[in-house]
Amino acid sequence: MNKSRRKTIKYLGQGIVSASALGIAGTMMSCDSKAAKDFQKGYEDGLNDKMKKPFFDISLAQWSLHKSFFGDALKDGFGAFGKALASDPDSLLRGVLDPIDFPSIAKKDFGLDAVEFVNTFYYSKAKDMAYLKDLKDRCDSEGVKAVLIMCDALGDLGDLDGEKRAKAVINHHPWVDAAKYLGCHAIRVNAAGTGTEDEVRSAAIQGLGALTEYGKKNDINIIVENHGGYSSDGSWLASVMAGVNDSYCGTLPDFGNFCIERNEDFSCKKEYDRYKGTAELMPYAKGISAKTHDFDEEGNETHTDYRKMLQIVKDAGYTGYIDIEYEGQTMSEADGIKATKALLEKIGAELA
User: Fold this and answer.
1) 239-262 residue pLDDT tens
2) Which one, of 271, 326, 339, lies nearest residue 293 by Cα?
3) What is the Cα–Cα distance from 137 to 206, expressed in whole angstroms?
4) For residue 328, which of 140, 242, 293, 352 is within the disulfide window of CB 3.0 to 4.6 Å?
5) What is the DSSP letter of 120?
6) H helices within the chain, ranges in order?
7) What rounded mean pLDDT belongs to the chain?
8) Which has the higher per-residue pLDDT, 216 or 19?
9) Dihedral of CA 7/8/9/14: which sign?
């Protein structure tokens, strides 16, 4: 086939859809020019909508699969879980999935190329360089970005006791080191403590400030989630951020974690307005958690208005990662992750 004939076929192939559209538009034009214009605009809008992507990136929070990693390790309650975590953390990994496979799971099962680790799945591995190398190699081989490590069970950074607070800061150091090695930009921590609002605020500013100094030396951000207690009060946590006043210390607003106080049955007794709280935390946000529990028939989350919430995020100028964190009971973890992903992609594209 000669070169000019190949070009002709190429151009004809590219023109099939547009020619068809023009043919319809031309027919409409002969009857009603307004209809033709409306058709053309609708057609172009449809193409644009198809090409739109969310204004943010999507990552997978490892906690979305905690049942699959821990299995029945939580059946005896958090007291027994905490005891085992301190004495034999690997014994808690009783699920059908292995945490070392998380990067591959995110990519192959959910089509996601960014992950957010949780330290309790790797509690004995913070200084295990052979294990961390394996984990990093798996990220690299899958083309998966390690975004951050969520850190729990390391002591209270807002402890009123100075020695305990200092110990908590030191306990986080190995996870800062691990995050740096894995290529993360941050570790997520908690601003917890026992005392009055003002007392815990002052202690948290000191604890976070000290940890941020270590993080800064390693180019790792220290970001705080609204995670119960005072930290779920958006104005309180924002005041802590203002007190630390360091660009390496920020927030990770969680759309569903605004319960300040719970009843004995774990139902929420006192809840902060989630939209107000998110708006207050967004000026400091270096990560966001899209918490989901239940969905209606149209795929909308029933506890959080995601259009309203993502508009708040967009208005703040945020374009970084939003993680999927499904914690529902009405569908499998895999289905919950997929439903959350679909919701984020849909509304994120609408607002793009």
Assistant:
1) 999 999 999 999 999 999 999 999
2) 326
3) 36
4) 293
5) G
6) 3-31, 33-51, 66-70, 78-87, 102-110, 129-142, 162-182, 197-217, 234-244, 274-281, 306-315, 333-351
7) 91
8) 216
9) positive
Q: How far is CA 234 from CA 64, 190, 297, 302, in A?
A: 24, 14, 31, 22
On whether the CB atoms of residues 130 and 137 are closer than 8 A, the answer is: no
Between the CA of residue 209 and those of 95, 148, 280, what are the distances in Å?
Answer: 37, 19, 20
Helix (H, G, I), strand (E, B) or coil at 135: helix
Ordered by start, the domain boundaries in the chain are 3-51, 57-351
Q: Of 53, 71, 72, 147, which is closest to residue 103 (Cα–Cα)?
A: 147
Cα 111 to Cα 114: distance, rounded to the nearest angstrom:
9
CATH superfamily name and code, 57-351: Divalent-metal-dependent TIM barrel enzymes (3.20.20.150)
* Burial class of residue 8, CB neighbours in 10 A (0-12, 13-18, 19+): exposed
How confident is the model over 66-116, as pLDDT tens digits? Answer: 999 999 999 989 899 999 999 999 999 999 999 999 999 999 999 999 999
Largest interatomic CA distance in the chain:
83
- Residue for token digits 């961390």? 132
The DSSP call for residue 286 is S
What letter does residue 295 receive in the DSSP assignment? B
Tens digit of each residue's pLDDT (9 = 90 or more) over 186-205? 999 999 999 999 999 999 99
pLDDT interval class at 40 (50, 70, 90): confident
Q: Helix 306-315 vs helix 333-351: angle between axes, to the nearest 10 degrees?
A: 50
DSSP per position, 28-82 = HHHH-HHHHHHHHHHHHHHHHHHH---SSEEEEEGGGGHHHHHTTTTTT-HHHHH
Q: Using DSSP bridges, classify how beta strands 268-271 and 259-262 pair: parallel, antiparallel or unpaired.
A: antiparallel
Q: φ and ψ at 271, to 5 degrees?
A: -125, 140
Stated pTM of the model: 0.86
Residue pair 151/175 in contact by the 8 Å Cβ criterion: yes
